Known about the structure:
The chain is mainly alpha-helical.
Amino acid sequence: MAESTGRMDRAFLASVLILTVIGIVMVYSSTALMDISSADKGAQFNYLRRHLFALTISLLAMTAAFRTPLSLLRRYYIFVMVIALILLGLVFVPGLGVTINGARRWIRLQPTTFQPSEFAKFAMVLFLAAHLAGTETRREELRVFLKPVFVMVVLQGLILLQPDFGGAASLAMITLAMLFVGGTPLRYLFALSGCLIPVLVFLLSEPYRLKRLVAFLDPWKDPFGSGFQLVQSFIALGNGGLTGVGLGESRQKLSFLPEVNTDFIFSLLGEELGLLGALLVVGLFLAIFIRGMKIVREAEEPFSGYLAMGLVLMMTVQAILNIMVVTGIAPTKGLPLPFLSYGGSSLLMNYIGVGVLLRISRGEVERFQTGQSTFYRRRRLRRARRLGRPA
């Protein structure tokens, strides 16, 4: 049973939709020439059509998520986690798993593919929200801390087997941030960080990852080899100047900049729309973070607050990592830019997150079986007084 106390956050939704429109334009710009040699009429619209199809599905999923009671999400969070584990395992099944560029990260779903690691992030956020809301008075217990860590490690193990280092890293960042915000003792978090360091060193010692790390430190040392992608990204951003070379006028997309429609779409945007266009996109992500934190602060229940926090982090952490990669601040990882990059899996899961956040932003009071914390009871009383309603 739920009671709504307000309207959804329209500024948050507007920021997301503006980013999506920019993404549609940039996806078309980045892919219009990919199939131009095809004899098919309208081949230059192939990628755009697929992107719009994924967007349509995502908008429908957002609507369904908006209509889903939060109490239902909390009740079935374990079921969602089980589905995530099954999907991560299915990528290794012959005939179902799809290998692209040496990575087996996708499941074949005609007429498209799906990347389970994106669903795993959502499942982890949902799991952490339910776990933190149900253990508010038991943060000092070691087993309360170890339970989400164990789940994170299992998910990361399956993701790293694909391999997908970027997905595993973003999952770890979201988990640690939520545990920190949830009041987990710092000694536990420091101990976990200490344990993760040797694992990180081992993973980075893999030849191809080490090559990426060296290229990140000095891409100009091997501009036609390991540093090629980052050098081309720098050239694209540099060409853009203040106002850009104009929509559709990019030179780097002409088979120079790899993954221009997915991981490096921000570089294309910087070239065609310049620094002003890039700052607009960064500003929109900042608006999503600020409005998202407002939703977190005004959440009526602990579960709603933790869930909102995790979903905002899921979107913004990935955006930060992607922009850091294309600007040379972090080593190259295979992470799309939320709401802009071509690819249905990221778009779908982020829009589901938007739907849930919009429902939380309405100030909905969900009747959970567990009691509310004192903090949330006081917040609810203050809001009731302000709105002139009974608490």
